[in-house]
Amino acid sequence: MNQRLLVVAVAARLPGWAEQACAQYVQRMPRGFETRRVTVKPEPRDTGKPLARVLALEAQRIEAQLPAAVRRVALDERGTDLSSAQFAAQLRRWLDEGDPTAMLIGGADGIDAALKKSCVATIRLSSLTLPHALAQLLLCEQLYRAATLLTGHPYHRE
Question: Residue 146 domain-assigned?
């Protein structure tokens, strides 16, 4: 069965080093863990719009990129902290359920509350504050690590 992963991030263009590294991890994903990355344009913060409106507009852009039947997972600083092995096990359960899984990364101010509520889980990558480019790279690396762990490749060592 073809497993589908989707990373949707609210972001301006990534620096070249981050784009190249993310693309490399996505390209190296094992068969069955095919992954696609999509970025959506962030809403300008200096327009005087209330933050809730800004986040709602970004959420609309995220929604437009999601397939009809998709499991949504929000990345948020207040999300559940998982080890790499726990993340891999959870990813396996989600993928075994059949629907594609979309990992959602919000913009500078996070993810709209209604969109976050529609997610089956909220996880965090780190307790540290990460620059957006590094967060995307870390997610791509962890997806790759999980996929290789689940397919028996020697990438992960404990």
Answer: yes
Characterize 116-126 residue by residue with b for buried, 16 or more Cβ atoms within 10 angstroms of its Cβ, and e for exposed: beebebbbbbe
pLDDT tens by residue, the chain, 158 residues: 455 899 999 998 899 999 999 999 999 999 889 999 999 999 998 888 899 999 999 999 999 999 988 999 999 999 999 999 999 999 999 988 888 999 999 998 999 999 999 999 999 999 888 899 999 999 999 999 999 999 987 765 65
Query: Number of structural domains, the chain?
Result: 1
Look at residue 39 and tell me if it is in a domain.
yes
Domain residue limits at 53: 3-150
Question: CB–CB of 103/135 below 8 Å?
Answer: no
CA dist., res. 150 & res. 146, Å (int): 6
Instruction: Let me know if residue 155 belongs to a domain.
Output: no
Say if residue 75 is exposed, middle or buried (CB neighbours under 10 Å; 0-12, 13-18, 19+): buried
CATH number of domain containing 142: 3.40.1280.10
Chain centroid to Cα 105, Å, comes to 5
